[in-house]
Amino acid sequence: MGLQGERPPLSRLTESHRERIEKALAACGVEKLAQRPFRDLSGGQQQRSLVARALVSDPQVLVLDEPTNDLDLSGEHDIMELVAQVNRSGRTVVMVSHLLNLVAHYATRVAILHEGQLDAGPASEVLTSERLSKLYGIPVSAGEIDGRRAILPKVEARP
Fold first, then answer.
1. What kind of fold does domain 1-97 have according to CATH?
2. pLDDT of 59-74, one tens digit each?
């Protein structure tokens, strides 16, 4: 499906198309699932397949909506590293995510839209305790753990 704009409807895939498909599936770790119907895949496998579909056309701007949904920690890491690699290769990545720890670690610039108000800029300036506490209406702590930015709701000490 990621190649539909490149070839006439109902035409056969070329060898070049097949190679690109195999490369995208392998990059997302789902090459062994290529012959299985999409509906039979787990949620995480479907998500990886959707990222492969987005990558197969080799876009200059990659737009992703919650690309790590339904993935376990290793799958989340794999997809985000792949997305970071795409970005380092000179392509623009626009990603929607509610997973602030991923955003804090991988994004260089962020935009937060809340109640019609836009807060945008470098991730290190936007994803601060003060700004996030105001946004979410609860105390939020933004800091570093093992050299990575981490964002957590502050929890009251239990008796």
1. Rossmann fold (3.40.50)
2. 999 999 999 988 899 9
